[in-house]
Predict the 3D structure of the following.
Amino acid sequence: MNEVNFDHTSIVLRDGRVLVIAGAQCDVIEIYDPKTETFKTVKYRYRRQDAAASIMQDGKVLISGGNDEIYNKILKQRERFTDTEIFDPKTDELKPAAKMNYYKYVSKSILLNDGRVFIEGYSMAEIYDPVKDKFDYIDNKIEEITDKYIDIFKLKDGKVLMIGDIGGYGPHTDFNKTFGIFDPETNTVILYKDKIKMPFNGNYAAVLLNDGETLAVIGGYNEACHVLKTISLYNIYKIINNIQE
């Protein structure tokens, strides 16, 4: 790359290039072209550590959330991270988009089937509508899943699975067995409390398998602060059906 970087975000564009969004050490965006094995630099407004990025239906990228810890310690202005931008891969240019309703650090986002974007960060979620260029806050109880980090996955029916990751470990860390399902049709979140017995505490890796319903949870720490070398599979629909029976 042309600039040093960490805590940055990257995403593969539809044309095969890779967009690397400014992290904790730089204020530029870089575009990697695998055909030429070169990086192109695009000037960015400021650092955006741990930001979220999602490719929308038109191929453009919505960039949201994030943080600049050094800037915040000096100026205490986190509210600037309610700003969002849209990157256009046809022109390699950025333009401002609507402001979010709330600041989101360690943000994550995912494209919904209806073209909107679901964005979560620090126990708050919003929906971005690219047609209206507007963010709508979701009145929910996501903070009951975790007070810090959430992983999100789009299930095969278009709903969004949210599971908590406390991002730490130790005997004094809350162990969370609650997960949530966001329904884009109703814009509501349903919580399932103490219904999923995952043998991890935090710092795990999780992926949704290609069937769109099985969650694989790999490693992490358990309640006793032991590092795990396990992989556990959970069929989300079976868990929900068992709860409802």
Notes: The radius of gyration is 18 Å.
